[in-house]
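Hey L., structure's done. Input below.
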Amino acid sequence: MFGFGDDLEPLQATVDLVEDILMDFITSTASAAVDVAIAQGSYAKAGAGGGAGGGGGAGGGGRNAGDREAALLGPRPDLKVEHIKFVVRKDARKYARIQELLQMESVIKSARQVRSGDVAWAASAAEQGEEDLAREYKEQGQ
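Output:
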């Protein structure tokens, strides 16, 4: 918890409070993302198939708690990054941070492949809009 001039050893009450807030946020976001996955009929391959309740039913247009419980007891929802992005889509800061982290993940993965000498990756990177990394790789003489 050290940042922005905080104490190296924060009060335990502060640590507990931040942990509670973070756990609440992660739990509520993940739960909402599971609801989105269920509503979209996104299930893991092992349990592929419609799921409980179909597409929402007449009149309501959405799923109720019973549908969610039945889906969770049946086939496992296939939670994807897109579901989390959908949940936070209206919060510009969170959405931008997700995009930034995903982009950094891609850059780090690409850099690891360059470092390991994956020549096939250099060709595909150029095709996928990562020309700068591919050019850097070629300039290194490999």
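Helices lie at 12-39, 65-73, 81-87, 92-115, 119-127, 131-139. Residues 47-61 have pLDDT under 50 and may be disordered.

-- N.
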